[in-house]
Amino acid sequence: MSGDWSARAHELFKEHEIKQVAYVPDAGLSKLIKSSLADNDIRTVPLTTEEEGIAVSAGAWLGGQKCAVMMQSSGVGNTINMIASLTTTCAFPLFMIVTMRGDYGESNPWQMPMGKAVQPVLEAVGVRCIKAETDEEAAEAIKAGLLMSFHGGEAVAVLIGQKLIGAKPFAGAHARAKAGD
């Protein structure tokens, strides 16, 4: 396996015939987004809001294609009604990769609430969550998630933790006040 989870994820997209990738731009997903954009066999769909990805995935499935939806954890809250209603009512497979914020090493207090809520909220609306903290775990989780989703008919989210993608520095008002700014 490659030491870069995003390179292996792109290989898995090819192996599992992912034809569409819907995404909200995110630094943790940037390599995977770039490789998808460069791949003539994958149609990339930039989203203005995360719930659009759920609809794109449903449309892809209805059109005979597989789609991967990618976003940061802070946008998961935007998808809950769409996931709960559309995936349950229409019974289509959903595969998501979610890069986590409000996780290991986070210093931005605005990211903490959703970081804590992502897994329980997704599970409450019927999405299986698979956590990954290393390159190897991420590749294995993506492979398992693709199989569970497109062969098992499940809604699956692979949660890529901050131990893997790194925590972003935050210099909010609290941090500046302590520094004497």
UniProtKB/TrEMBL annotation:
It comes from the Bacteria. InterPro entries: THDP-binding, TPP_dependent_decarboxylase. CDD domains: TPP_PYR_POX_like. One of its GO terms (molecular function) is carboxy-lyase activity. Keywords: Decarboxylase, Lyase. This is Phosphonopyruvate decarboxylase. It comes from Nisaea acidiphila. The lineage of its organism: Bacteria, Pseudomonadati, Pseudomonadota, Alphaproteobacteria, Rhodospirillales.
